[in-house]
Amino acid sequence: MMSAPTQSLTVSLGAPAHGARSYPIFVGSGLISTAVADIFNSVLPSAGKQILIVSNSTIAEHYLPTLIANLTAAGIEREHIQQALIPDGETFKNLTIYSEIMDVLVKHRFNRDCTIIALGGGVVGDMAGFVAATWQRGVPFLQIPTTLLAQVDSSVGGKTAVNHPSGKNLIGAFHQPAAVIIDIDSLATLPAREFKAGLAEVIKYGVMADANFFAWLEENMPLLLSRDAEALIYAITKSCELKARIVAADETEQGVRALLNLGHTFGHAIEAATHYKTWLHGEAVAVGMIMAAYLAVQQGYLARTDAIRIEQLIDAAGLPKYPPKNISNSEWLELMARDKKVKHGKLRFILPTGLGRASIFSDISSDALISVIESL
Ligand code: NAD
Ligand code: GLY
Q1: Is the confidence at residue 343, as pLDDT, over 90?
Q2: From 1, 230, 253, 295, which residue has the greatest number of CB atoms within 10 Å?
Q3: pTM score, whole prediction
Q4: Which atom of ligand 2 lies nearest, measured to the CA of 243?
Protein backbone atom coordinates (compact mmCIF):
# COMPACT_ATOMS: atom_id res chain seq x y z
CA MET A 1 0.00 0.00 0.00
CA MET A 2 1.33 3.46 -0.93
CA SER A 3 1.56 5.83 2.02
CA ALA A 4 0.09 9.31 1.60
CA PRO A 5 2.79 11.84 0.58
CA THR A 6 4.18 14.29 3.12
CA GLN A 7 2.74 17.77 2.80
CA SER A 8 4.63 20.93 3.64
CA LEU A 9 3.62 24.52 4.11
CA THR A 10 5.15 27.68 5.53
CA VAL A 11 4.17 30.04 8.31
CA SER A 12 5.27 33.33 6.74
CA LEU A 13 6.51 35.84 9.28
CA GLY A 14 8.30 39.16 9.01
CA ALA A 15 12.07 39.29 9.07
CA PRO A 16 13.67 41.13 11.99
CA ALA A 17 17.28 42.32 11.88
CA HIS A 18 18.73 38.87 12.59
CA GLY A 19 17.00 37.05 9.76
CA ALA A 20 13.73 35.66 8.51
CA ARG A 21 11.48 33.93 11.01
CA SER A 22 9.23 32.03 8.62
CA TYR A 23 9.17 28.31 9.32
CA PRO A 24 7.97 25.10 7.72
CA ILE A 25 5.29 22.68 8.84
CA PHE A 26 5.56 19.08 7.61
CA VAL A 27 2.59 16.74 7.74
CA GLY A 28 3.09 13.08 6.92
CA SER A 29 3.45 9.50 8.02
CA GLY A 30 6.63 8.04 9.59
CA LEU A 31 8.28 11.43 10.11
CA ILE A 32 9.50 10.75 13.67
CA SER A 33 11.41 7.67 12.52
CA THR A 34 12.73 9.07 9.24
CA ALA A 35 12.69 12.86 8.95
CA VAL A 36 13.38 14.76 12.17
CA ALA A 37 17.18 14.83 11.91
CA ASP A 38 17.10 15.96 8.27
CA ILE A 39 14.61 18.71 9.10
CA PHE A 40 16.69 19.75 12.12
CA ASN A 41 19.82 20.00 9.95
CA SER A 42 18.05 21.94 7.24
CA VAL A 43 16.21 24.48 9.42
CA LEU A 44 19.00 24.94 12.00
CA PRO A 45 22.20 24.39 9.99
CA SER A 46 24.39 26.22 12.49
CA ALA A 47 22.85 24.80 15.68
CA GLY A 48 25.21 23.42 18.30
CA LYS A 49 25.21 19.80 19.29
CA GLN A 50 23.12 19.97 22.44
CA ILE A 51 19.49 18.88 22.21
CA LEU A 52 16.95 18.71 25.02
CA ILE A 53 13.83 16.67 24.32
CA VAL A 54 10.89 17.64 26.53
CA SER A 55 8.12 15.03 26.74
CA ASN A 56 6.12 13.06 29.29
CA SER A 57 6.35 9.39 30.17
CA THR A 58 3.07 8.43 28.40
CA ILE A 59 4.33 9.79 25.09
CA ALA A 60 7.98 8.95 25.62
CA GLU A 61 7.14 5.29 25.99
CA HIS A 62 5.73 5.24 22.45
CA TYR A 63 7.91 7.69 20.52
CA LEU A 64 11.07 8.77 22.37
CA PRO A 65 13.26 5.76 21.41
CA THR A 66 12.26 6.19 17.74
CA LEU A 67 13.05 9.90 17.84
CA ILE A 68 16.44 9.34 19.48
CA ALA A 69 17.24 6.57 16.99
CA ASN A 70 16.52 8.93 14.10
CA LEU A 71 18.71 11.69 15.57
CA THR A 72 21.63 9.39 16.37
CA ALA A 73 21.44 7.61 13.00
CA ALA A 74 21.98 11.02 11.43
CA GLY A 75 25.20 11.48 13.38
CA ILE A 76 24.02 13.38 16.47
CA GLU A 77 25.85 11.79 19.36
CA ARG A 78 23.69 10.16 22.02
CA GLU A 79 25.56 11.94 24.82
CA HIS A 80 24.52 15.30 23.39
CA ILE A 81 20.81 14.46 23.65
CA GLN A 82 19.23 15.04 27.06
CA GLN A 83 15.63 14.49 28.03
CA ALA A 84 13.23 16.10 30.50
CA LEU A 85 10.14 13.98 31.10
CA ILE A 86 7.46 15.95 32.89
CA PRO A 87 4.49 14.44 34.72
CA ASP A 88 1.40 13.96 32.56
CA GLY A 89 -1.39 16.50 32.98
CA GLU A 90 -2.44 20.13 32.69
CA THR A 91 -1.75 20.76 36.39
CA PHE A 92 1.95 20.20 35.74
CA LYS A 93 2.13 23.04 33.18
CA ASN A 94 3.43 25.18 36.02
CA LEU A 95 6.44 27.17 37.17
CA THR A 96 7.75 24.36 39.40
CA ILE A 97 8.12 21.93 36.48
CA TYR A 98 9.44 24.78 34.30
CA SER A 99 12.12 25.39 36.88
CA GLU A 100 13.01 21.68 37.00
CA ILE A 101 13.55 21.69 33.23
CA MET A 102 15.78 24.75 33.61
CA ASP A 103 17.77 22.74 36.19
CA VAL A 104 18.38 20.03 33.57
CA LEU A 105 19.69 22.67 31.15
CA VAL A 106 21.96 24.10 33.84
CA LYS A 107 23.19 20.68 34.96
CA HIS A 108 24.20 19.69 31.45
CA ARG A 109 25.70 23.10 30.70
CA PHE A 110 23.48 23.89 27.75
CA ASN A 111 24.66 26.84 25.65
CA ARG A 112 22.75 29.42 23.64
CA ASP A 113 23.20 27.36 20.48
CA CYS A 114 21.27 24.40 21.86
CA THR A 115 17.90 23.20 20.55
CA ILE A 116 14.79 22.21 22.46
CA ILE A 117 12.47 19.58 20.99
CA ALA A 118 8.87 19.32 22.20
CA LEU A 119 7.53 15.78 21.78
CA GLY A 120 3.94 15.67 22.97
CA GLY A 121 0.56 17.34 23.19
CA GLY A 122 -0.23 20.95 23.93
CA VAL A 123 0.92 20.76 27.54
CA VAL A 124 4.41 19.57 26.56
CA GLY A 125 4.52 21.96 23.58
CA ASP A 126 3.51 25.03 25.60
CA MET A 127 5.97 24.16 28.36
CA ALA A 128 8.90 23.30 26.05
CA GLY A 129 8.18 26.41 24.01
CA PHE A 130 8.26 28.62 27.09
CA VAL A 131 11.52 27.00 28.19
CA ALA A 132 12.93 27.70 24.71
CA ALA A 133 11.62 31.27 24.82
CA THR A 134 13.37 32.02 28.08
CA TRP A 135 16.50 29.85 28.33
CA GLN A 136 19.33 32.32 27.87
CA ARG A 137 16.77 34.80 26.46
CA GLY A 138 15.59 32.46 23.76
CA VAL A 139 16.85 29.42 21.86
CA PRO A 140 15.37 27.58 18.86
CA PHE A 141 12.89 24.78 19.25
CA LEU A 142 11.15 22.15 17.16
CA GLN A 143 7.56 21.11 17.71
CA ILE A 144 6.68 17.42 17.26
CA PRO A 145 3.01 17.46 18.28
CA THR A 146 1.45 14.11 19.14
CA THR A 147 -2.21 14.98 19.85
CA LEU A 148 -4.60 16.08 17.13
CA LEU A 149 -5.22 19.31 19.06
CA ALA A 150 -1.50 20.08 19.16
CA GLN A 151 -1.09 19.16 15.49
CA VAL A 152 -3.80 21.54 14.27
CA ASP A 153 -3.51 24.29 16.83
CA SER A 154 -1.06 24.62 19.71
CA SER A 155 2.16 23.68 17.87
CA VAL A 156 1.61 26.38 15.24
CA GLY A 157 1.76 30.09 15.94
CA GLY A 158 4.28 30.51 18.73
CA LYS A 159 2.07 30.94 21.78
CA THR A 160 3.98 29.40 24.69
CA ALA A 161 2.98 29.48 28.34
CA VAL A 162 2.65 27.94 31.76
CA ASN A 163 -0.27 28.32 34.15
CA HIS A 164 -0.45 30.35 37.35
CA PRO A 165 -2.61 29.04 40.22
CA SER A 166 -5.04 31.88 39.49
CA GLY A 167 -5.40 31.25 35.76
CA LYS A 168 -4.38 29.33 32.65
CA ASN A 169 -1.52 30.48 30.42
CA LEU A 170 -0.95 33.65 32.45
CA ILE A 171 2.84 33.40 32.18
CA GLY A 172 4.13 33.07 28.66
CA ALA A 173 5.75 34.48 25.57
CA PHE A 174 5.37 34.50 21.82
CA HIS A 175 8.23 32.34 20.55
CA GLN A 176 7.88 30.69 17.16
CA PRO A 177 9.29 27.20 16.52
CA ALA A 178 11.96 26.61 13.88
CA ALA A 179 9.78 23.87 12.37
CA VAL A 180 6.68 21.84 13.15
CA ILE A 181 6.90 18.12 12.36
CA ILE A 182 3.51 16.41 12.35
CA ASP A 183 3.68 12.64 12.20
CA ILE A 184 0.13 11.31 11.86
CA ASP A 185 1.32 7.85 12.93
CA SER A 186 1.56 9.22 16.49
CA LEU A 187 -2.24 9.52 16.51
CA ALA A 188 -2.53 5.71 16.51
CA THR A 189 -2.02 5.63 20.27
CA LEU A 190 -4.10 8.71 21.10
CA PRO A 191 -7.22 7.86 23.16
CA ALA A 192 -10.49 8.33 21.23
CA ARG A 193 -11.74 11.06 23.54
CA GLU A 194 -8.56 13.12 23.03
CA PHE A 195 -8.78 12.56 19.28
CA LYS A 196 -12.37 13.86 19.15
CA ALA A 197 -11.40 16.87 21.27
CA GLY A 198 -8.85 17.72 18.56
CA LEU A 199 -11.58 17.43 15.92
CA ALA A 200 -13.37 20.34 17.61
CA GLU A 201 -10.48 22.63 16.65
CA VAL A 202 -10.48 21.21 13.11
CA ILE A 203 -14.21 21.98 12.81
CA LYS A 204 -13.50 25.47 14.18
CA TYR A 205 -11.35 26.28 11.12
CA GLY A 206 -14.15 25.25 8.78
CA VAL A 207 -16.71 27.34 10.66
CA MET A 208 -14.63 30.50 10.95
CA ALA A 209 -12.52 30.49 7.81
CA ASP A 210 -13.39 28.03 5.04
CA ALA A 211 -16.86 26.95 3.92
CA ASN A 212 -15.46 24.38 1.46
CA PHE A 213 -13.46 22.76 4.24
CA PHE A 214 -16.58 22.74 6.40
CA ALA A 215 -18.44 20.88 3.63
CA TRP A 216 -15.49 18.49 3.23
CA LEU A 217 -15.68 17.75 6.96
CA GLU A 218 -19.42 17.05 6.68
CA GLU A 219 -18.64 14.51 3.92
CA ASN A 220 -15.59 12.94 5.50
CA MET A 221 -16.16 12.87 9.26
CA PRO A 222 -16.56 9.03 9.30
CA LEU A 223 -13.20 8.67 7.47
CA LEU A 224 -11.53 11.04 9.92
CA LEU A 225 -12.98 9.17 12.88
CA SER A 226 -11.51 5.97 11.44
CA ARG A 227 -8.16 7.84 11.38
CA ASP A 228 -7.72 7.27 7.66
CA ALA A 229 -4.21 8.49 6.80
CA GLU A 230 -5.09 10.44 3.67
CA ALA A 231 -8.07 12.15 5.31
CA LEU A 232 -5.99 13.02 8.36
CA ILE A 233 -3.17 14.51 6.30
CA TYR A 234 -5.67 16.57 4.32
CA ALA A 235 -7.56 17.85 7.39
CA ILE A 236 -4.41 18.61 9.40
CA THR A 237 -2.69 20.35 6.49
CA LYS A 238 -5.80 22.42 5.74
CA SER A 239 -6.17 23.38 9.43
CA CYS A 240 -2.51 24.38 9.63
CA GLU A 241 -2.80 26.40 6.39
CA LEU A 242 -5.77 28.32 7.77
CA LYS A 243 -4.04 28.93 11.10
CA ALA A 244 -0.75 29.88 9.39
CA ARG A 245 -2.54 32.48 7.27
CA ILE A 246 -4.06 34.11 10.35
CA VAL A 247 -0.82 33.99 12.36
CA ALA A 248 1.06 35.54 9.42
CA ALA A 249 -1.46 38.38 9.35
CA ASP A 250 -1.48 39.00 13.10
CA GLU A 251 1.29 37.20 14.95
CA THR A 252 0.70 38.75 18.39
CA GLU A 253 -3.12 38.85 18.34
CA GLN A 254 -3.75 42.54 17.89
CA GLY A 255 -6.78 41.80 15.74
CA VAL A 256 -7.70 38.98 13.39
CA ARG A 257 -5.93 36.22 15.38
CA ALA A 258 -8.63 36.58 18.04
CA LEU A 259 -11.00 34.90 15.55
CA LEU A 260 -9.18 31.63 16.37
CA ASN A 261 -10.94 31.84 19.71
CA LEU A 262 -14.35 31.04 18.22
CA GLY A 263 -16.26 29.07 20.83
CA HIS A 264 -13.62 29.75 23.47
CA THR A 265 -15.43 32.37 25.59
CA PHE A 266 -18.25 29.95 26.37
CA GLY A 267 -15.78 27.04 26.35
CA HIS A 268 -13.41 28.61 28.89
CA ALA A 269 -16.39 29.28 31.17
CA ILE A 270 -17.34 25.58 31.00
CA GLU A 271 -13.75 24.50 31.72
CA ALA A 272 -13.44 26.92 34.65
CA ALA A 273 -16.87 26.00 36.10
CA THR A 274 -15.86 22.34 36.07
CA HIS A 275 -12.38 23.14 37.48
CA TYR A 276 -10.56 21.88 34.36
CA LYS A 277 -11.28 18.34 35.52
CA THR A 278 -14.23 16.83 33.71
CA TRP A 279 -14.23 18.54 30.32
CA LEU A 280 -11.42 18.42 27.78
CA HIS A 281 -10.64 21.79 26.19
CA GLY A 282 -11.86 20.65 22.75
CA GLU A 283 -15.12 19.34 24.20
CA ALA A 284 -15.78 22.70 25.85
CA VAL A 285 -14.90 24.51 22.61
CA ALA A 286 -17.32 22.28 20.69
CA VAL A 287 -20.21 23.29 22.93
CA GLY A 288 -18.93 26.87 22.90
CA MET A 289 -19.12 26.92 19.09
CA ILE A 290 -22.73 25.73 19.19
CA MET A 291 -23.54 28.44 21.74
CA ALA A 292 -21.77 31.06 19.62
CA ALA A 293 -23.69 29.86 16.56
CA TYR A 294 -27.09 30.20 18.25
CA LEU A 295 -26.09 33.55 19.74
CA ALA A 296 -25.25 34.64 16.17
CA VAL A 297 -28.66 33.42 14.99
CA GLN A 298 -30.37 35.34 17.80
CA GLN A 299 -28.44 38.50 16.87
CA GLY A 300 -29.38 38.12 13.22
CA TYR A 301 -25.83 37.40 11.96
CA LEU A 302 -26.25 33.74 11.01
CA ALA A 303 -28.98 31.70 9.31
CA ARG A 304 -30.53 29.08 11.62
CA THR A 305 -29.87 26.43 8.94
CA ASP A 306 -26.11 27.15 9.24
CA ALA A 307 -26.21 26.89 13.03
CA ILE A 308 -27.95 23.53 12.67
CA ARG A 309 -25.22 22.34 10.27
CA ILE A 310 -22.55 23.38 12.81
CA GLU A 311 -24.36 21.51 15.57
CA GLN A 312 -24.79 18.42 13.37
CA LEU A 313 -21.11 18.34 12.40
CA ILE A 314 -20.06 18.59 16.05
CA ASP A 315 -22.47 15.78 16.86
CA ALA A 316 -21.11 13.67 13.98
CA ALA A 317 -17.62 14.05 15.47
CA GLY A 318 -18.89 12.46 18.68
CA LEU A 319 -18.47 15.68 20.64
CA PRO A 320 -20.86 16.99 23.30
CA LYS A 321 -23.55 19.45 22.21
CA TYR A 322 -24.87 20.82 25.49
CA PRO A 323 -23.20 22.69 28.34
CA PRO A 324 -23.37 21.34 31.91
CA LYS A 325 -26.74 22.13 33.48
CA ASN A 326 -25.40 23.15 36.88
CA ILE A 327 -23.83 26.48 35.90
CA SER A 328 -26.08 29.31 37.10
CA ASN A 329 -26.72 32.33 34.88
CA SER A 330 -24.72 34.59 37.20
CA GLU A 331 -21.83 32.10 37.20
CA TRP A 332 -21.83 32.04 33.39
CA LEU A 333 -21.65 35.84 33.26
CA GLU A 334 -18.95 36.01 35.91
CA LEU A 335 -16.79 33.34 34.29
CA MET A 336 -17.10 34.86 30.84
CA ALA A 337 -16.14 38.27 32.22
CA ARG A 338 -12.78 36.73 33.24
CA ASP A 339 -12.01 35.83 29.63
CA LYS A 340 -8.71 37.13 28.28
CA LYS A 341 -10.59 38.68 25.33
CA VAL A 342 -12.30 41.21 27.62
CA LYS A 343 -11.13 44.63 26.38
CA HIS A 344 -11.85 47.97 28.06
CA GLY A 345 -14.21 46.10 30.42
CA LYS A 346 -16.33 44.80 27.51
CA LEU A 347 -16.92 41.15 26.74
CA ARG A 348 -16.00 40.29 23.17
CA PHE A 349 -17.54 37.38 21.32
CA ILE A 350 -16.34 35.71 18.16
CA LEU A 351 -19.49 34.81 16.25
CA PRO A 352 -19.89 33.00 12.93
CA THR A 353 -21.48 35.30 10.34
CA GLY A 354 -21.92 32.53 7.77
CA LEU A 355 -20.19 29.21 7.17
CA GLY A 356 -16.48 30.02 6.71
CA ARG A 357 -16.78 33.52 8.20
CA ALA A 358 -16.59 35.02 11.68
CA SER A 359 -16.31 38.45 13.28
CA ILE A 360 -15.69 39.96 16.70
CA PHE A 361 -18.67 41.54 18.49
CA SER A 362 -18.57 43.51 21.73
CA ASP A 363 -22.14 44.74 22.00
CA ILE A 364 -23.91 41.60 23.21
CA SER A 365 -26.18 42.21 26.21
CA SER A 366 -26.31 39.95 29.28
CA ASP A 367 -29.98 39.28 28.53
CA ALA A 368 -29.11 38.02 25.07
CA LEU A 369 -26.43 35.73 26.51
CA ILE A 370 -28.75 34.33 29.13
CA SER A 371 -31.49 33.65 26.66
CA VAL A 372 -29.06 31.56 24.53
CA ILE A 373 -27.68 29.75 27.60
CA GLU A 374 -31.21 28.90 28.73
CA SER A 375 -32.24 27.70 25.28
CA LEU A 376 -29.67 24.87 25.24
P1 NAD B 1 -2.26 17.18 26.53
O2 NAD B 1 -0.97 17.73 26.09
O3 NAD B 1 -2.55 17.14 27.98
O4 NAD B 1 -2.41 15.71 25.94
C5 NAD B 1 -3.58 14.99 26.21
C6 NAD B 1 -3.26 13.59 26.76
O7 NAD B 1 -2.84 12.77 25.68
C8 NAD B 1 -2.13 13.56 27.77
O9 NAD B 1 -2.44 12.61 28.76
C10 NAD B 1 -0.94 13.10 26.95
O11 NAD B 1 0.04 12.46 27.72
C12 NAD B 1 -1.59 12.16 26.00
N13 NAD B 1 -0.92 11.97 24.71
C14 NAD B 1 -0.36 12.92 23.94
N15 NAD B 1 0.01 12.40 22.78
C16 NAD B 1 -0.30 11.10 22.82
C17 NAD B 1 -0.17 10.03 21.90
N18 NAD B 1 0.31 10.23 20.68
N19 NAD B 1 -0.56 8.80 22.28
C20 NAD B 1 -1.09 8.60 23.52
N21 NAD B 1 -1.28 9.56 24.42
C22 NAD B 1 -0.89 10.80 24.07
O23 NAD B 1 -3.49 17.94 25.85
P24 NAD B 1 -3.66 18.70 24.47
O25 NAD B 1 -5.11 18.72 24.22
O26 NAD B 1 -2.74 18.20 23.42
O27 NAD B 1 -3.19 20.19 24.81
C28 NAD B 1 -3.85 20.99 25.76
C29 NAD B 1 -2.94 22.13 26.12
O30 NAD B 1 -2.67 22.89 24.96
C31 NAD B 1 -3.52 23.09 27.14
O32 NAD B 1 -2.54 23.36 28.12
C33 NAD B 1 -3.82 24.34 26.34
O34 NAD B 1 -3.71 25.52 27.11
C35 NAD B 1 -2.76 24.26 25.28
N36 NAD B 1 -3.09 24.98 24.04
C37 NAD B 1 -2.17 25.85 23.56
C38 NAD B 1 -2.41 26.53 22.38
C39 NAD B 1 -1.38 27.43 21.82
O40 NAD B 1 -1.64 28.12 20.83
N41 NAD B 1 -0.17 27.42 22.36
C42 NAD B 1 -3.62 26.31 21.68
C43 NAD B 1 -4.53 25.40 22.20
C44 NAD B 1 -4.27 24.73 23.38
N1 GLY C 1 -5.12 28.86 19.83
C2 GLY C 1 -5.32 30.23 19.50
C3 GLY C 1 -4.12 30.88 18.95
O4 GLY C 1 -3.12 30.26 18.68
O5 GLY C 1 -4.12 32.07 18.77
Answers
A1: no
A2: 295
A3: 0.96
A4: 4
